[in-house]
Design goal:
heterodimer; A: 318 residues; alpha/beta; 2 domains; eight-stranded mixed beta sheet; two-stranded antiparallel ribbon; 31% helix; 15% strand; B: 605 residues; Pyruvate-ferredoxin Oxidoreductase, domain 3; 20 helices; 37% helix; 21% strand; globular
Chain lengths: 318, 605
């Protein structure tokens, strides 16, 4: 940030965008980025917030998988957790409330060379942006979405969230919430998300595993990560934390991740439920379907410049 | 039309051929009769014959059925509006006949389907009536189970005979139209056409011939405003778009969905209006300036995200094909009532660019201009089209596509450093993600008030500086805009000022007023936010500046542009002519209303 910043000179021959994401760049001499190089602003979260672990593991993931600054798109909506992009030294967008997914879809569909990560909370995902979750899932746009679910609205200081359990006392439900909470796993499976996993901030290794698996999935991959709000919902997830006397139970090894019905049943287990991949499908992505469509259409106009294609259309408008 | 260009005698005599320089033909029927197809054929024919054409149509907002009209004005000279009065009315039904006879000039021709229409004796004295059993003749000619389908093509044959139109060219147009369908379809259509063409027009003792038009320099293309806008976006290099269907915008998204894959692009039909603007912003952030569009209700839903585009300085093109509002309003009628929303819609101080195309041809070039401004100034640009310009067909000189087509593939070659929001007054272009920034400092696009790198700040000083920065870049843009050209003398009594699609009828009003000796000039504004330079000097040359708009006069007596201009220039001489009938301005209407507005008449004192 200085007055001496260079003007970006007009560059005559734009390099074409590489076609496919290079998940494991071969023969790349660049060293993996360190946490220091990846960290930007100091997080504004309250001490003890579960979101810190998600951020730390994101850095770890980028380091482990050797993703470069310029290849990462970190996108979020609004909420405590959605502050995420400010803390990452990479191209980031802090978008509007609930709309991170369509925004990220625009990125994913135009830039197959970028790794698109979306972070947000339960309000973004299941309340104001609920419909976008459904439609991004059914389109199966390639990206990784981590929902940091804390069962409460934290940024606005303790109102009921769509995942707040019945009986939760908030500033908008002072007698205890009585609207049925959303079951994120069920919602995501029903909507057609092609990778649905559940994790918690208190089990770092497992969360990192889930993030890696989600990143490697070719499609819309979603992780619901329990992330405790120590300020407004202290102890919400103790029952899932062995250190607090709770139980962290993995998805049974016998579970078939392609079995939608079985996944739905797993999701029905009472809290703390199961952790791991609930559902996975290899349904083709919108990215691929659109690219295939374009390849077929492009073949018909092979060798023609864009203006010549348009000229052919204009010739029919005479 | 100021002067009837066809002045045939009402009485009998021998058949003769009259030369005409232009004609206005109105087809009136129901929406499923295919009358828009007749209009389309005539418009294309005019284009191929180096003539100018403009059409006007009304369609019911119901899915099927309901009265519909299509008016086409063909001229050997410049055609600026669809015409105030029709020379010929072709009426398929009694209601078409009764509802539209008033649109025919006295002495004009009423061609009616005698199977459905019972002419009125009092009108038979004022208009030349020609009855043709269109329905039964069509059924007879085509036979089969098609019932009266094809009577539009039969009627086209009648019109072709009446105006001595080029039959081989029309045959080719009909064949092209049905190309790809079963061969029998084109054959049946041609059969219907020739039956109509061969029908003896009995008591019509006169046919017409267009005078040769002055040869145009290039080839002409024929299309609607929606098509021109969509093709302009493609020419500009737009390769991504997202939208939700709404009348009258849908045609643009349908066309882009169909065409973009040929160019390697994608158009996404989204779950809603909000998702579509957000998806377009995502693409713009990713280095691919994108388009979204809608009509009024949808634009209202997009305003929060447009505000983000202003704040985060991300390029975006938003098309608003205006219709009557508020709310669902008049979905298939025209209005220019979204100007305030386009310029000011949204929370906070969120300056953006608003452009309005003045003709079908201008839709093409405005699209390119919008894309370039969005990119250069990293700002959302709203194109205010409207229902009339969207659906009307015009001919225009074919653009030099090789010259105008742009490649906007982002350049990802490394840069030393990058500041997205510099405070030194520079207008900064967005750098596409994927570009290595060698100092390791990557920019953030933020909806929160931010510092020069995009990091959030609560600093009052930075908020003031950044607000000024977002405003300042549009002030810089304003300096580069061309001074709009006055039509007619630069000094006089009355300046008729319009924006967007009213360009044609206002100009025709000037021609007519000047021919009558009145001191009237006009000005069309294409740039509405920011306003172009030089308006003070132009206004200084006139006693009255009358803003002619298709919107309400508002609580304080001025239309939406009128109010902006009064606020901007503080001139009491700025007044307004407004209307909300959902129809385009007729030339006569403008002149009559202007005369009432200026108490001492339009002539210079």
């Amino acid at each position: 940030m200085s007055e001496t910043t260079v003007e970006i000179p007009p560059r005559a021959n734009p390099a074409p965008i590489p076609a496919a994401p290079a998940s494991a760049p071969a023969a790349n001499e660049r060293k993996a980025l360190t946490k220091k190089e990846l960290a930007a602003d100091h997080p504004t979260w309250c001490p003890g917030c579960g979101d810190f672990s998600v951020l730390a593991l994101y850095f770890k993931l980028l380091e482990k998988r050797k993703l470069w600054h310029e290849k990462i798109a970190t996108i979020a909506g609004i909420g405590c957790s959605s502050r995420f992009p400010y803390f990452v030294q990479a191209n980031g967008a802090h978008f509007i409330h609930g709309r991170a997914l369509p925004f990220a879809s625009g990125v994913s569909l135009t830039r197959p060379d970028l790794h698109v990560f979306v972070f947000g909370g339960d309000g973004d995902a299941f309340s104001i942006g609920g419909n976008h979750v459904n439609h991004t899932a059914r389109r199966n746009v390639k990206m990784t979405y981590v929902v940091m679910d804390n069962w409460v609205y934290g940024l606005t200081k303790k109102q009921t969230s769509p995942t707040s359990p019945i009986g939760f006392k908030s500033k908008t439900d002072m007698w205890g919430a009585f609207d049925q909470p959303i079951n994120p796993m069920k919602q995501l499976i029903a909507a057609g998300a092609t990778f649905v996993a559940r994790a918690t901030h208190t089990n770092a290794n497992h969360l990192l595993q889930m993030m890696e698996a989600a990143m490697d999935h070719d499609g819309f991959s979603v992780i619901e990560c329990l992330s405790e709000c120590v300020e407004f919902y202290d102890g919400a997830f103790d029952a899932s934390n062995p250190r607090k006397g709770g139980k962290f139970e993995l998805v049974p090894a016998t579970h078939d991740v392609k079995d939608e019905l079985a996944a739905y049943k797993l999701a029905d287990a009472p809290f703390p439920g199961y952790f791991g991949v609930f559902y996975k499908s290899d349904r083709p992505t919108k990215n691929k379907l659109e690219a295939d469509l374009n390849a077929g259409m492009r073949a018909k106009v092979a060798g023609k410049k864009d203006w010549e294609i348009l000229q052919a259309t204009f010739n029919r408008l005479k | 039309m100021s002067e009837p260009t066809m002045t045939p005698p009402l009485g009998g005599g021998t058949p003769k051929v009259s030369k005409v320089s232009e004609a206005v033909i109105r087809f009136a029927g129901n929406s499923q009769d295919g009358i828009q197809a007749i209009g389309g054929f005539l418009a294309r024919l005019a284009g191929r014959s180096e003539q100018e054409v403009m059409t006007f149509m009304t369609i019911p907002s119901t899915i099927s059925g309901g009265p519909s009209i299509f008016q086409v004005r063909i001229g050997s000279g410049e055609v600026l509006s669809a015409g105030d009065e029709a020379d010929v009315l072709l009426a398929f039904y009694q209601h078409s006949y009764e509802d539209h006879i008033s649109s025919v000039r006295k002495g004009g021709i009423v061609l009616y389907d005698s199977d459905h229409v019972q002419p009125k004796p009092e009108w038979e004295k004022e208009y030349r009536h020609v009855g043709v059993p269109i329905t039964s003749r069509t059924v007879e000619a085509i036979g089969g189970t098609a019932k009266d389908k094809g009577k539009n093509i039969f009627a086209l044959g009648l019109v072709a005979k009446m105006f001595d139109l080029n039959v081989p060219k029309l045959e080719r147009l009909i064949s092209e139209r049905f190309a790809g369908k079963d061969e029998s379809v084109a054959k049946t259509a041609l059969g219907a056409f020739h039956t109509g063409y061969g029908y003896s027009l009995g008591n019509l003792l006169e046919t017409f011939q267009f005078v040769e038009s002055a040869k145009k320099s290039g080839h002409q293309v024929v299309m609607t405003g929606n098509e021109a806008l969509a093709f302009g976006l493609i020419a500009a290099g737009i390769r991504f778009g997202a939208a939700y269907p709404i009348t009258p915008w849908s045609e643009i998204m349908e066309l882009l969905r169909r065409e973009l894959p040929k160019y390697g692009g994608t158009f996404v039909q989204c779950e809603d209006e909000i998702a579509s603007v957000c998806m377009a912003l995502g693409a713009g952030w990713a280095g691919r300036v994108a388009v979204t569009g809608s009509s009024g209700p949808g634009i209202a839903l997009k305003t929060e995200a447009i505000g983000w585009g202003v704040m985060a300085e991300v390029p975006l093109v938003v098309c608003d094909v205006q219709r009557g509002g508020p709310s669902t309003g008049m979905p298939t009628s025209v209005e220019q009532s979204d100007l305030n929303m386009a310029c000011f819609g949204g929370h906070g101080d969120s300056p953006r660019v608003v452009l309005a195309p003045s003709s079908v041809e201008d839709c093409f070039y405005t699209a390119i201009e919008a894309v370039n401004i969005a990119r250069q100034y990293s700002v959302p640009v709203i194109i205010l089209s409207d229902q009339s310009i969207a659906t009307r067909i015009e001919t225009f000189e074919e653009p030099d596509l090789q010259k105008v087509c742009q490649d906007l593939t982002p350049d990802l070659s490394p840069v030393a450093e990058y500041t997205p929001y510099p405070l030194d007054g520079r207008v900064q272009r967005r750098l596409a993600p994927g570009t290595p920034i060698l100092n390791g400092h990557y920019p953030l696009a933020s909806g929160l008030e931010h510092d020069e790198m995009g990091h959030p700040t609560g600093s009052p000083k930075l908020h003031m500086q950044m607000t000024a920065r977002r405003r300042g870049k549009l002030q810089k843009l304003a300096e580069t805009l061309p001074v709009p050209q006055v039509y007619g003398p630069p000094e006089g009594n009355v300046l008729l000022l319009g924006w967007g699609s009213t360009h044609g009828p206002i100009r025709e009003a000037v021609d007519r007023a000047r021919a009558a000796g009145d001191s009237v000039s006009s000005l069309n504004l294409r740039h509405l936010s920011p306003l172009p330079p030089g308006l003070e000097n132009i206004f200084a040359g006139f006693n009255h500046v009358i803003v002619v708009e298709m919107n309400d006069e508002g609580l304080y007596g001025y239309g939406q542009l009128g109010a902006i201009l009064r606020a901007r220039f503080c001139l009491p001489k700025i007044g307004g002519l407004n209307k909300t009938d959902g129809l385009t301005w007729r030339v006569r209407e403008i002149l009559e209303r202007a005369k009432t507005h200026v108490a001492d008449g339009l002539r210079k004192l």
